[in-house]
Amino acid sequence: MKVTPQIKELIINGRSLNNINRTTGIAKSTLYYHYKKLKGKKYKEIKTNFKNKKDLGEFLGIFSGDGTFSKDKRGHYKIRFSIGYYEKEYAQILENKMLTWFNKKPHKYYSYFKGNLSAIILSYNSKIIYELIQKHLYWEGKKTYSIKLKELNLNNHDFNKGYLRGLIDTDGSYYAPKRRLSYSTVSKQLADQVIIIIEKLLIKPKVYIIKKEGCSDLYTISLHGVNSKKLIQIINPTNPNKNPFKDKIKYKI
């Protein structure tokens, strides 16, 4: 639909783009294009701002664990992260990290299950982030079953430690009574990469394959005692539920 002089007048007079979108059906991206021409930029632009390779690795690990993305027929790119409501402290930490990484806070909303809060959703509409993910990660079909790094460079130490941090923050678990750190995935390719990265840090993990009829194999990578503590202090998870040694001295590797 064409943006008519009457619609431009609405923009100039301060009518919200959401309202114009609802009443006219014109895409918000089109309306915003004309808004910028008429009144200048309204929204902060998303820019990638990773201060080091570890931060980039962490973001990609977080997406590998809790992220989804999609592109619709109108060229809209949506990236979402779903964090369990019981981890709301980590969700706040992640929201602040994303503001730093992308120059803009993610949109935040909540999902419910049987009337109770179940998850916190952080989302962006961004082609830049979409293409960043495509550049570094690969999967076929449903992401959960085959997600992996496109290329694993064992000499990229900081990136790999950041990637592990993001994976542990999202899909890891720490069981304090047994000092056990575990990470589980149904992607064999990702499990293999995680094992290689951990072994490169001179730590030998235990690997279990859990088979259940009608389900994909679950690969669980576990570390106990000293090995668990060592890995945690190397990668320094930011999720408080995954890091009992937060803010203590880290191993230098």
Estimate the strand proportion. Answer: 15-25%
C-alpha termini separation: 58 Å
Number of helical stretches of at least 4 residues: 10
List SSEs in N-to-C order: HHHHEEHEEHEHEHEEHEEH
- What is the overall silhouette? elongated
The overall strand count is 10
Strand order, main sheet: write it out: 1-2-4-3
Computed Rg: 21 Å
Summarize the main sheet: 4 strands, antiparallel
Structural class given helices, strands, pairing? Answer: alpha+beta
Residues in helix, %: 40-55%
Average per-residue pLDDT, rounded, comes to 89
Low-pLDDT stretches: 249-253
Explain this structure to me?
- The structure is a single chain.
- The chain is an alpha+beta fold and 253 residues long.
- The chain contains 10 helices and 10 strands.
- The protein has helices at residues 5-12, 17-24, 28-39, 53-66, 88-102, 127-136, 143-146, 157-171, 188-200, 225-235, and strands spanning 67-71, 77-84, 107-113, 116-125, 137-138, 148-149, 172-175, 180-185, 206-210, 218-224.
- The chain has a 4-stranded antiparallel β-sheet with strand order 1-2-4-3.
- α4 packs parallel to α8 (157-171).
- The protein is elongated.
- The termini are far apart.
- Residues 249-253 have low confidence and may be disordered.
